[in-house]
Amino acid sequence: MNQTKTEYVKSQEQVRYHTCHWPDCKKQVPPAMWGCSKHWYTLPPTLRSKLWAAYRPGQERDMKPSEDYIKVAREIQAWIQEYLAWRHVK
Ligand SMILES: [Zn+2]
Asked: Is residue 4 part of a domain?
């Protein structure tokens, strides 16, 4: 692959039903992306870079993300739950 990972992800289009992974966000995003830009940039940079590092171009096609990727994706969901709970308290 001559493309960089960024070029690859940016070139990907919406090819099937796939929504942002933020809870209750119904926004459609290309399967190569985790979520819509609003929610992606709500995540802490450390989690974003971890997910980015674990992402393998094409995993959304063969549906075989690495264990690392799944682990980080779970961490992200846990972070979101805390974030939402904290916002709810405020
Ligand atoms: Zn979203």
From this structure: no
